[in-house]
Amino acid sequence: MKKFFALVLALSMLACAAGALATDSKEDLRDAVIISGQGTVTIIWTTDTVGEDASASDTREKIRTAAKNASPLDELPEDLRAQLPEGFTVVNELESVKLEGDLTGLEELTVAFKFNTPYEPESVVYLAAAIPGEETEWVLLEAKADEEGSVVVTFDAEFLAKVGNSDFVLMAISEK
User: Fold this and answer.
1) In 94-156, which residue ranges form alpha helices assigned H by DSSP?
2) pLDDT by residue (tens digit) across 51-66?
3) Domain residue spans in the chain?
């Protein structure tokens, strides 16, 4: 009888563990940590937020459509694509974010984005940022993965001034 209860207990624990692993953990994994900067700035993921900037949402949908038809990189301006080193053709992440807080006077802001894709430590990842406006402006930022597989990028004062507190789209581009 003890063996039967031990078996039932073991199977129950296994079922719970399998259920936990099968859960969509995107919300648990998506995170951003501000590493440096001054003032109080919060990173807000806006991919599923109602009331997000329509321009950012439109840009994200154009990229998703391009990904279905060919490559999400096709949505990038040609001069930006030309800046990518050879072999950087893999797009695993496409998210909308917003920097909330007082960005006035910040010289730079370093952020570690934890995406669904864990990147190899020390690997280079390019972030193409789409800044909505009358015409979408694209900026290419070089980032590097840290020991936890997060992508660490530094936004300079010029980028912070352009984006302000508006939603913008980030596309993470890595090597094959």
Assistant:
1) none
2) 445 555 566 676 666 5
3) 25-175
